[in-house]
Amino acid sequence: xxxxxxxxxxxxxxxxxxxxxxxxxxxxxxxxxxxxxxxxxxxxxxxxxxxxxxxxxxxxxxxxxxxxxxxxxxxxxxxxxxxxxxxxxxxxxxxxxxxxxxxxxxxxxxxxxxxxxxxxxxxxxxxxxxxxxxxxxxxxxxxxxxxxxxxxxxxxxxxxxxxxxxxxxxxxxxxxxxxxxxxxxxxxxxxxxxxxxxxxxxxxxxxxxxxxxxxxxxxxxxxxxxxxxxxxxxxxxxxxxxxxxxxxxxxxxxxxxxxxxxxxxxxxxxxxxxxxxxxxxxxxxxxxxxxxxxxxxxxxxxxxxxxxxxxxxxxxxxxxxxxxxxxxxxxxxxxxxxxxxxxxxxxxxxxxxxxxxxxxxxxxxxxxxxxxxxxxxxxxxxxxxxxxxxxxxxxxxxxxxxxxxxxxxxxxxxxxxxxxxxxxxxxxxxxxxxxxxxxxxxxxxxxxxxxxxxxxxxxxxxxxxxxxxxxxxxxxxxxxxxxxxxxxxxxxxxxxxxxxxxxxxxxxxxxxxxxxxxxxxxxxxxxxxxxxxxxxxxxxxxxxxxxxxxxxxxxxxxxxxxxx
Length: 564
Known about the structure:
The protein is mainly β and 564 residues long. The protein contains three helices and 41 strands. Strands 32, 33, 34, 35, 36, 37 and 38 form a seven-stranded antiparallel sheet that branches. Strands 7, 10, 11, 13, 14 and 15 form a six-stranded mixed sheet that branches. It is elongated, with a radius of gyration of 44 Å. The termini are far apart.
């Protein structure tokens, strides 16, 4: 019972204490004189609770600055703040990321992505004002807007080294170069699309120039716009190239070569633009038609200049294949076309056409200067199995056109053409406008031809040709090489000259094989015993058989196979 009384007394005392503490301060002040009571004033050291219903402002703080883009990626930008900005005082390099839902706008105010922003663009960046102290510094942007696009800034390249040269052309059809004291200026002569300026290197394995660094690019380079490039590339290995998308949708490429130029006694530095062409790999344009003329059609074109293989004017001209290539180094591609010609008798044959600057140049009757007299030559057109090759045999980066095909049976016509200022030009082959042969292959800057040969039972012979110093096709092999598997057996002694230049006669019963001939005066042989030599032949009056030592060829051999 005493414990209960003690507990009640304790609770009563605690209740009285609480009542005294909770009494409002203004009630005390109203009952007592002002001089007798010390008023409580707000103090910074005392925590003042917020009113329960007071509204809170939650709008985030923002800061805005202008910067130049140094690197552009898919998720971040590396920028340099503009002069005078508070951000530049904090860091000269800032990595900019994006908040969720951040706005990215191009120079026209249209939505874009970070990947669309280019190095050199000027951007306005809105962010929270918080900069993470690192290098580069880091911020998260709420908005990025491109205010100015990247212009053609000067590029620092490798200084020139090398020997002096006597002259240098510095102009091509699409882009010109202007030399100043410390830079060269590239200028577009017409509007160019998808332009790129890049460092390149020559890959010996690929036999081509391969891009190393993309230095500058633009979707549209307006006519007259200039690109200033300071310093030059080394002479011993040009490593600067400019390229653009041509009218065919293909990429035109040009090497920019720095040169030290000597004009009289004045030594200056200059640059030139040359065709950006790797060593050309021979290309065969497939006719896409069989020997019967079956195949997918071509695009109908304007009338062919000349007559068909049968001597009639074509009533319809079709393109069965084409290739676009800069044949003359002018800086603009020509169109090389294989045509199929149809006449009024429903006969077809094939012809060559080159389109240069919108003008058609056709094979057929052409005016050549093969004999120095400007004679008009009738170049034979194939009736079947046409062949059209592009190749650069002399390595001058100017491609020749090799054209021919089957005239009838296995009789072929082969002609060579180049493209110059006057259009399609015929090249002499052994001093003739064409030779009766067809293309077998192109190897080591040579073309191997196959010719029908009717000499002592042989049927085909091959020989290799190349371009000589006078820009004519010259025979490398003095004779047509024959791979004959038919053994000729002598029925009487044959006078021959052995390989050691001794004269003798092969006895009757000897078996020999024809290995080579010029198809006009001499035949080379080897025997079963491995002896080699030659003997002379002359054309008989009938025009297809041969005489040996004044006698018919059939008088010397047991059997001569039919060669035609």
